[in-house]
Amino acid sequence: MKRLRRPSRLSIDPYLVLLLGTVGLAALFPARGTAADVSSGASTAAIALLFFLYGARLSTREALDGLRHWRLHLTVLACTFLIFPALGLAARGLVPVVLTHPLYQGLLFLTLVPSTVQSSIAFTSIARGNVPAAICAGSFSSLVGIVATPLLAAALLGSGGGGFSGDSLVQIALQLLAPFLAGQVLRHWIGGFVARHKKVLGYVDRGSILLVVYTAFSEGMVQGVWHRVSPARLGGLLVVEAVLLAVMLLLTWYGAKALHFGREDRITIQFAGSKKSLASGLPMASVLFGAHASLAVLPLMLFHQMQLMVCAVIARRRAQDPLPERDRPVDPDPRYGRLPGDNVPS
C-alpha cells in the first residue's frame, strides 16, 4: 500500500467560502418580485439536474458488488437514519432555553439527511480504511435518503416544519426521485460522458447548490426570518452541534468495535456514519421548507464545515496508527466482508 500524503495544514473549505459569499449576496441583494420567480424556477430546474446527474453517476454494478458488505452498510444506515434522528429528537429539550423552535427544526432536519459521499471516501482513504466500502456506503445512503429523508421529515417535522405537508412528498418524487431514476435509466448511454467530464459536471453540481442557497436565503430575507436569530442563539447552536458530532464520532468508532468490525471497516463506519450531506440536504430543504429554508439549512451548513475540520484531524491521526493483529475481525466469515489484511486501493 502506498503511503498517503498527509494534509499539510487544516484549512477552511473554499466551497464553504463561496456558500457564505452567496448568503451575503442574498442578504444584500435578495431576489424580489419577478426576479424571485425566475430564481425559484431556475433553482427547481437546478435541483432536478443535480439529482439526474447523481443517478447517471451511480454504477448499479458497484452497488450490487458492495452488497457483500451488508453488515457495514446496515450499520452506517442505522447511524444515519436511526441514531442521528433519535439524538435530534432528544435535543427537543433544549427549546426554548438554548435553541429557538425554528433553529431546532433545522437541527432536526440536519439529523435526517443522508451521509456524504466524497468527503467520507477522502477521509477513509487518508486514514487507511476500507475505501471500496466507503464508496458503496455513501452511495447507498444517498439513494436511501431520497426516500427516507422526506418520510422521516413527514413523521418528525409534520406541519410544523415550515410549510411541510403531504404535497411535499409528491414534490420530492417529481423533483428528486424522478430525475434520479431517469439518470439511472439513461446511464447506459450517458454514463461514459459523465465519467469523462466529471470535473466539469462537478462545477454544475456546485453551481446548482449555490443557486439553491441564494434562492432560499433570498426568500428568508424577504420574509424577515433573520431578525429572529441572535448571536447568542447561533453560539448555542454551534455548541449543540459540536456535542452531536462528538457523540456520533464516539458511537460509530466504539460501536463498530463492539460489533467486531476490523480497523479498516471501523474507519469507514466512523466517517460515513457521522457525516451529513450538504449537497443532498440543501435541495431537499428548499422543497420541504419553502420560504423557511434559510433557517432550516443554517444548522446543516454549520455542521458541514465542523465535520470537515474535525474529521480531517481524526483522519491524519488514524493514518499514523499501527495495524495490530488483534484489530482483525473476530469472525472471518466471508459474508461479513473482507479482512483488514486484504489489498485495498490506496
Automatic annotation (TrEMBL):
The chain crosses the membrane at residues 43-60, 72-91, 103-123, 135-157, 169-186, 207-226, 232-256, 277-302. InterPro entries: Na+/solute_symporter_sf (IPR038770), Put_Na-Bile_cotransptr (IPR016833). It holds the Pfam family SBF_like. Coiled coil: none annotated. One of its GO terms (cellular component) is plasma membrane. Keywords: Membrane, Transmembrane, Transmembrane helix. Residues 322-336 have a biased composition (Basic and acidic residues). Residues 322-346 are annotated as: Disordered. PANTHER family: SODIUM_BILE ACID COTRANSPORTER 7 (PTHR18640:SF5), SOLUTE CARRIER FAMILY 10 MEMBER 7 (PTHR18640). This is Bile acid:sodium symporter.
